[in-house]
Fold this sequence. Notes:
The structure is a homodimer. The first copy, chain A, is about 30% helix and about 20% strand. By secondary structure, chain A is an alpha/beta fold. In chain A, the strands form six sheets. In chain A, strands 1, 2, 3, 4, 5, 6 and 7 form a seven-stranded mixed sheet that branches. The first copy, chain A, is globular and about 75 Å long.
Amino acid sequence: MLRMPGLAACSVPRMTQQLDAAIRQSPEARVQAWLADFESALAARDIGRVVAQFAPDGIWRDLVAFTWNIKTVESREGIVDMLRARLADTDPSGFRTRETPTDDGGGVASAFIEFETAVGRGVGHLRLKGDLGWTLLTALDELKGHEEPIGSRRVLGAVHGADPESRSWAEKRADQDATLGYSQQPYVLVVGGGQGGIALGARLRQLGVPAIVIDKHARPGDNWRERYKTLCLHDPVWYDHFPYLPFPANWPVFSPKDKIADWLEFYTRVMEIPYWTSTTCLSASFDAQAEQWTVEVDRGGERLTLRPTHLVLATGMAGKANVPELPGQNVFRGDQHHSSEHPGPDGYVGKRAVVIGSGTSAHDICKALYENGTDVTMVQRASTLVVTSEAVLEIGLGGLYSEQAAAAGIGTEKADLTVASLPYRIIADFQKPISDAMRLRDKDLYDRLEKAGFSLDFGDDDSGQFMKYLRRGGGFYIDVGASDLICDGSIKLCHGGVERLTEGSVILDDGTELPADLVVYATGFRSMNSFVADFISQDVADKVGKVWGLGSGTTQDPAPWEGELRNMWKPTQQQNLWFHGGNLHQSRHYSLFLALQLKARCAGIPTPVYGLQQVHHQS
Amino acid sequence: MLRMPGLAACSVPRMTQQLDAAIRQSPEARVQAWLADFESALAARDIGRVVAQFAPDGIWRDLVAFTWNIKTVESREGIVDMLRARLADTDPSGFRTRETPTDDGGGVASAFIEFETAVGRGVGHLRLKGDLGWTLLTALDELKGHEEPIGSRRVLGAVHGADPESRSWAEKRADQDATLGYSQQPYVLVVGGGQGGIALGARLRQLGVPAIVIDKHARPGDNWRERYKTLCLHDPVWYDHFPYLPFPANWPVFSPKDKIADWLEFYTRVMEIPYWTSTTCLSASFDAQAEQWTVEVDRGGERLTLRPTHLVLATGMAGKANVPELPGQNVFRGDQHHSSEHPGPDGYVGKRAVVIGSGTSAHDICKALYENGTDVTMVQRASTLVVTSEAVLEIGLGGLYSEQAAAAGIGTEKADLTVASLPYRIIADFQKPISDAMRLRDKDLYDRLEKAGFSLDFGDDDSGQFMKYLRRGGGFYIDVGASDLICDGSIKLCHGGVERLTEGSVILDDGTELPADLVVYATGFRSMNSFVADFISQDVADKVGKVWGLGSGTTQDPAPWEGELRNMWKPTQQQNLWFHGGNLHQSRHYSLFLALQLKARCAGIPTPVYGLQQVHHQS
């Protein structure tokens, strides 16, 4: 959730005399001159000349195009190291702007760019500070000779002329379904068929990579259907589009969970994704010699062994439910469950509920319980970030993902590229003024929340909700009404840890006793590698380490600095094991880069990985 | 299937000196001056001044905006008559261009326009010959106060703040499904849930008109699924988009029938169309006093009486199967069925088939049978128009419905408006040069077809395939390969009528005996009012008369001239009975005008119909 503010809002270092002179040139002239010099230095393999074009704090973010990795190199030294390893192989050329460069203020010019490599075509973004490169994004967009059959390259469908293939489309599809996973092994197995697995499945299908998406539920979309009944997406429709098929213009701003579930089911079908429902992964092991996985699955009662080359975990960027172990859980006579298992408020009319936690699920569940006539108490264990949905729409996303942005020509692809163009190192600098503007906008709510005793924060460095999402994937609530209910006491509020449960109550650290018929543990999720321990092994889980987070050294995101999200969409320390997920925006955009990495391997294109991440944390 | 050629290709009358002077002005200046004068004359209710702005052969086509009808008035006298009846009520204003007018050559300038009426907002198109109006299209686009909740007006989805409505989206949907047709009567009942009924259902749902679409099949899309297995759409994807949700960029050019079926099924779901499967209409009668229909339906074995105000037949623009009665049909020992019942070639390997007819179905079925190893003979009863699919794509549709058109900014809406802008009176003039170009392009094929004995035509007046479609809805084949098989004798060809069948053969008029294990009657369909006779009454069928056709006085389209397609999408002689259908383009575009007519009535907006059609033919 990011807006590109006028860069005047950010601290751009003071320009030297020389740069001031450069700035008198138009953004267009500066960008074109820079790209021409850049290309000529790259062509000459003159790394010294390339790097001299970057500012000392220049940052190059590469999505698969140069590094066969998702990798950000920071500083001139980092750029030199990457290019020494990757320039010759990559053989980049044809750098050009996609549209007229713009003046972002503060001496900064920016441009969307295109280029080619030896094996692919790329897009990207360049920001110049004066006439030096500040940020460069290079992103692989397609592989030469493996372009997607879309637009003018779409398939014909009907076979014109006498057709030696007498099978119809439906028969061919049925034959594929009957053989893939049986007589033909998939090249990729995607475990988890929520929005992430489905978006990736669609891209792999387009790219002609034999892949199966498996999911434990009976129907695509059940991962949403089975959640509490009032759940709606907290991100707006413009942020949530799937690859290839955007939501129609009549789609609600915030999709109800059953509606998004129907969409997922529909999308899976019309995108012709090989999707196995009611299928669970029992175990998986990798044969390093054969470079192949052996995966035991249960498909609706049928036990099968699959031998994919690559295994993708798309089981939710939040891993397994994190349920605290508390004394007295075994004697408590009411219902108790993790938020992910909460059935909704219908069974609890006139009852008393204690919801432990103060994140998104806690707020949503408290609101629905209260509205349904349940006496509900939220137990806040730690300070929480609250932003209003309206502030996110107006200030956070409006510039890139909104009706207005679309009308101004900022479509999903351009918006995604804009978001990707900001290296994580400097995102917080862009997010702080946004967070400050939201705090000002909703000062009244924040005052009332504090008066009601709610413990607020805006991130360790006041950088706001989006940074909290990137760093730890939680610790916030996008307010759609529960905050008012907390302010006016409709949802009761307590603080502190839970000491124990009794037969009929929750006892807090300070001795407070909360009578309860229902306890909901809205206590979050563990790192995604917890799934690895489950069906591969603890060794492999430890080897790949913590998933998500940037290494920012803030709460729940320990240093050292990583520069990219840990383990997401890129090679891991376990050969041929990948992680995919995130919100709908990330599932859409990063599924492209994961799909291209898999396609390149499937097509036998060499993919030497630069800068494979090191593991510093196990969970 | 229409391209807008340079108007130089058409016969534009020689301009007078005065007009020549006018033409020295820019198209923009001419259009703006015309619109300003037009609006001022309309505002003054000065019909004489209005009509003086039109050329003597000026034509005004109105889609619901002025006439509450689909009506073309030809000549100044026609325009005067329409305005006398409708100008005051309509109260039009705000005529303006949507984009810069263009010079179409030959003294013709054209422009897309917008305007308002007392109750709605409209779009349209204007062609000037010199400075006089030649063609004017006025089309209602939305009703004031009843705008669709799309784009910036879309619904929020999530309820922010404390929500007095505790039902979730899924629960509200379930409640609606449980009440509509039971405790709540639909305002509109749509009989037939193929592409036409579904597109209309989607629009009525958006407009908040309580409507049910019923269909006899078990699943939406089964009207396609149950056809012969090799069937593909013969119109390309760009022509076939549905309202609100265009096909994705990876959709095949020509959709296989099972793929379009899947699309229909899920479109129905995500558009939340109240759709009753396995439901047949048993009978319907109209109570003129109560202005209400009584409709008996069977819903999966449950007998129900529905009382809708309006009844829409969307049972296919082709009506009931037209099966000839032939001596010997009762003794023939093989399979015999109408093309609409043909199961596909699988059961006929090594058998002998006779296909009677030479239209689209006949060709498709012959091709699939031949490719599957059946000995197949086509019996051509009358000359047939053949165009190649490539010619239709390149010459017929390319300018409006293609990847290139979309890239040039001609989206579906603009293309549809362009097609609608040509009054039927002059379409043939535009189509003749297109048909001529196609004949030139594919001269080799036509030579070979004639050499093979195939009897070709290009329409009574050589105006080509699109005109045949409009006039009689058949008599042509868009070649996707069968023609080559006829040329090389793979599909055998005979001519003439069928005299009778024997136990094992078909005997033609000339005595030829064709041994046969299978006879397929690809003999077309009757007029759509044949359905009316079935479940309303023969009286009402006769009262509404023939459906489709223009009254062109050509084969199967008898005079007098109608100016619009008979009975389609507009009021009929039977109060509150409507017909909807056509190809995917028509189902998409004209469902809007039918939906707006129904919405206006539902909302209590007066809808006095100008120029209700007279009935000249019963079938």
